[in-house]
Amino acid sequence: MPRKSSRKSARKTADAVDLTFRQLDVEGCTSMRLQAAAKLAMQVYARHFADSGVTSPQFAALAFLYRDGGLSVGRLAELLDTDQTTVTRNLRLLDQRGLVRQEVSPEDRRRRIVQITADGRRIFRAALPHWQQAQAELARRLGSTQTAQLNRQLDGALDRLRDSQGG
Description:
Layout: H1 4-27, H2 30-49, H3 56-68, E1 71-72, H4 73-80, H5 84-96, E2 100-104, E3 112-116, H6 118-142, H7 144-166
Organism: Ferrovibrio xuzhouensis
Pfam families: MarR_2 (PF12802)
Protein name: MarR family winged helix-turn-helix transcriptional regulator
């Protein structure tokens, strides 16, 4: 026969789980909402980029390289809000296609500097209307005012989340 203390402990655990699920039902889960929204938004971009020759993450990397010229892999990862491993994987694909070139930094041989090539500039300019169409579709679907508000809220959230990681 089970001891009373183990039944009490099991009941407390069950009560805590029930309370958590009630909280989940009422408040929702921020992580699940963000993941679902990102997935649906990325599907819009993927559909528009399908014929452009680049993916949305590749387009973003090309955009920063187009704007800024040569960047270290680390700086590009910061600008893209991602890790260096993900950036390196995307750059490898762009490099194989001749859209970027990577060179060892003359100042620090441990760092690589990434440059967009002439073909990369051409592909970026050709992909730009695809990005604009994806942006316009999201604005139509969400409403332009709501899209602007969402972008401001996301920018603020990203700033606060970045700040809290450093401290």
